[in-house]
Structure formats: structure tokens, C-alpha cells
Write a structure and sequence with these properties.
This protein has helices spanning 27-51, 70-85, 270-277, 298-304, 307-319, 341-346, 350-360, 364-372, 385-403, and strands at residues 5-10, 55-59, 89-93, 113-115, 122-128, 131-138, 163-169, 196-200, 206-210, 213-216, 232-238, 243-249, 254-261, 286-294, 326-335. It is α/β, with parallel strands linked by helices. A hairpin with a 4-residue loop joins strand 11 (232-238) and strand 12. The radius of gyration is 25 Å and the shape is globular.
């Protein structure tokens, strides 16, 4: 009977991410932010050594872009060299962010690192005690995008080897939240008898199926307000009867969203204490995306007059110090709905027509000029369905509350 194998499954390290939207944070905090992806990498290595794993799988996007900084490549090589000291192999593929042909100055990695060299599916064999134990399959992106359904090309080639593991940097065919690369349907991954599918590309961790495990570990460090909560990797112990998966957090900084009801604030001065009272200390430094909700329209006046900005600066002065610091990097104000939308929607009047217009019309036509602007489009990501809904809802609330003022 084959013995167990133990490995770490991680993806989307995005080493040396620029964190462009956070450059206005204090220098000391921004320095920690820029270092956070490397700290997460260090914790990944420490976890692998502590768990005494057989190998590590890195399923694409190790770097944030194809022009990989020398710093990022050398830091990654050092991590691999440390793993080599403990006889831990690494199997890696490149994804859409760090595709092979984009990097004209690649660094050579130590002998314990096995890189899938091209877009054609290939495999490596992992041996344990001089016996073939696992056949690991995958491919790397040669160019920025892979649009073919690569999952259909995975074929088990040697059934005498106990374990077969597939690595795939791609997304479910109907995914609307991310750019779709190497698209697949779940049924595509079940046609061959693989013991584990190590996925990458989607930054939200998710187990698509338990038997066999089909797993997105998410990225190892959140990089923006949409990547909240714990980020890390999976430690997997695999045998022919079952797979035991344990999530291991690796992030050094957490992005989190927080909503506070500040309706009781009669004066702008009351906000500081209420916000401070609403914050609780966490185990990791926190970058906070804060929403302030109120049934008093004065909060919008405070926002427009920049008074709210001053209050947030005062709060940040209090909470930004210490080992587990917190910093509010974004504030959204939401005035509670002052109208019955269902009643407005039913009416045959101007408000009814306006309400129906918000519900039925897409926002993309109104943003086309912005996204086609030569300079602006460089800094714009494609909006997800959730983001489109947020924009429409905020615009609707603002317009209706102003029209119904008084």
C-alpha cells in the first residue's frame, strides 16, 4: 500500500506588488505593505519546513508582472535555497501575470525547483525513498493569455504511480469576477482519475469539490480592498483513501471591511470616539475599508466640507502605531434610504421611471468614454458585477436623497 504524501499548495504570490492605491499611507506603514508579499513567502517556507512536507506546488503568478524585478526573483531564489536545505522540492508554473516570454532576465533556481517550461502539458515525477510516488502535471503561460481549454489536455500517462496531481492556472468558464484564462468546467476536471487539482488564478480561496479535491488556495497576501480576510495556503496530506486539507494563514497584513452606524452623532466631534469604540484589535495589522452609515444627511455635508477627512486623520493618528496597527485607507459614506423604493418603482411618475431606469439599464455605456481614454484606461481594472451594482446603488441613493430633500 502506498504511503501518504504531504505537500503545500499555494498560488498567486504576486511578489513585489506595487500597491498603487495605498501610496498615501504613512511611510512606515507603506514600507510594511510593500514588504508584505515577501513576508508571506517567508511564512510559506517556514510552514513547509515545520510540516515536513514532501514538496510545494506553486500554481502560477508568482510575480506581479512579466517584468519581474531582480529583487523579487532573488528573494524567491533564496526561499527555494532554504527549502533545498530541508530536501523539499518545488513544482511551479507561470501564469498570466508572470508569463515566460515577458521575463527577459530570468534567474536560475536551485535543483530542487522544477518549472513547467511551456504551454504544452508536461509532468514531473516525485520520488520518495527511491520510489515513484507522485506524477505532477501542468503547464506555464508562454504569453499573457491562454484562452484554450487546457483542462481537456490533461491525461494520466502512468497508472502504476500511486498519486496523480494536476496544476492548472485558470478559471471556471462562466466566472464573471475575473478575466477568464484557460477556462474549464468542473466536469472537465473529472474525466481523468486525478487525485488532486491544484488551481491558481482566483484570489478567493475555495474548494470546488472534495472528492477528488479541486482547490483554489487564493493568494498568500491580500493586495487591495476586495481581497479581505485571511490569505494563505493549504497543507495537504494525501493517501489513496482520503485527502486531509488544512488552511494555513500566511498574510502579514489583512485587508478588512468594517461598517459602522453613526446615526447618533449630532456633531462632527462625536465621530472620532464612536469610530474608535467600533474598532477592535486583531492578530495582524489591518488596512480598513470603512463604511459609515447614518440616517442623518449631515454626514454628507461633513464629507463634502472635508471635516470627515480630518476626523479620519485624527483616528489614524491614534491607531496607526504599535505591532498590530490599524489604518483606515478608504471611507464610504452611506445615508440610509429615506424613501420606499418598492413604492417608487410601482409609480407611473418621474421617480418610478427613474427607479426602473436604475434597475434595468447597465452602467457600462456611461463609462465607455472613461475606459477608452488613453491615459485613464491604464489605471482601470474591469468592473465586476458586484462593483457595478455598488456604483449604481451609491448613485441611486445620492440622487434620490437629494431629489427628496425636504
Amino acid at each position: 500500500m502506498a504511503e501518504d504524501i504531504s505537500f503545500i499548495h499555494a498560488a498567486d504570490l504576486h511578489l513585489d506588488s506595487p500597491f498603487k492605491g495605498l501610496i498615501n499611507t504613512p511611510d512606515s506603514i507603506f514600507k510594511e505593505i510593500r514588504e508584505s508579499t515577501f513576508k508571506a513567502l517567508e511564512r510559506l517556507v517556514e510552514t513547509a519546513i515545520e510540516k515536513e512536507v514532501d514538496f510545494i506546488l506553486l500554481a502560477g503568478d508568482l510575480f506581479d508582472n512579466e517584468k519581474q524585478s531582480l529583487k523579487a526573483q532573488i528573494r524567491l531564489r533564496r526561499a527555494f535555497e532554504k527549502l533545498q536545505q530541508y530536501k523539499i522540492n518545488v513544482y511551479l508554473s507561470y501564469g498570466n501575470h508572470d508569463y515566460i516570454k515577458g521575463n527577459i532576465y530570468p534567474v536560475t533556481y536551485p535543483e530542487n525547483v522544477f518549472v513547467f517550461p511551456e504551454e504544452k502539458i508536461s509532468h514531473f515525477i516525485f520520488e520518495k525513498n527511491n520510489q515513484p510516488m507522485a506524477q505532477i502535471y501542468g503547464f506555464s503561460y508562454e504569453n499573457r493569455s491562454v484562452l484554450e481549454r487546457k483542462a481537456e489536455e490533461y491525461k494520466i500517462s502512468n497508472s502504476t504511480i500511486p498519486f496523480h496531481i494536476a496544476m492548472l492556472h485558470g478559471s471556471v468558464l462562466n466566472n464573471t469576477e475575473h478575466d477568464v484564462y484557460a477556462p474549464f468546467q468542473l466536469t472537465d476536471l473529472l474525466k481523468e482519475n486525478f487525485d488532486y487539482w491544484a488551481l491558481g488564478h482566483i484570489h478567493q480561496r475555495e474548494i470546488l469539490k472534495n472528492s477528488p479535491p479541486i482547490v483554489y488556495p487564493g493568494n498568500i497576501q491580500g493586495r487591495n480592498r476586495k481581497e479581505t480576510g485571511e490569505k494563505g495556503c493549504y497543507h495537504v496530506v494525501l493517501n489513496k483513501h482520503h485527502a486531509e486539507l488544512s488552511f494555513v494563514p500566511l498574510q502579514s497584513i489583512q485587508f478588512n471591511s468594517i461598517t459602522l452606524d453613526v446615526s447618533e452623532c449630532e456633531q462632527i466631534h462625536d465621530l472620532e470616539k464612536l469610530i474608535l469604540d467600533g474598532l477592535t484589535e486583531k492578530e495582524f495589522p489591518q488596512l480598513l475599508d470603512m463604511t459609515l452609515v447614518s440616517n442623518d444627511k449631515r454626514i454628507k455635508d461633513w464629507e463634502n466640507e472635508k471635516l470627515l477627512e480630518e476626523i479620519i486623520d485624527l483616528v489614524n493618528e491614534t491607531i496607526k502605531n504599535g505591532r498590530h496597527w490599524q489604518f483606515i485607507f478608504r471611507v464610504t459614506v452611506n445615508v440610509k434610504q429615506q424613501f420606499d423604493e418598492n413604492e417608487l418603482f410601482k409609480g407611473k411618475h418621474f421617480f418610478g421611471e427613474l427607479s426602473r431606469h436604475f434597475k434595468e439599464d447597465p452602467i457600462k455605456p456611461y463609462l465607455s468614454d472613461l475606459y477608452q481614454h488613453r491615459q485613464a484606461r491604464k489605471y482601470l481594472d474591469t468592473l465586476s458585477e458586484e462593483e457595478e451594482k455598488e456604483i449604481k446603488e451609491e448613485a441611486k441613493q445620492l440622487l434620490f436623497n437629494e431629489l427628496l430633500r425636504g
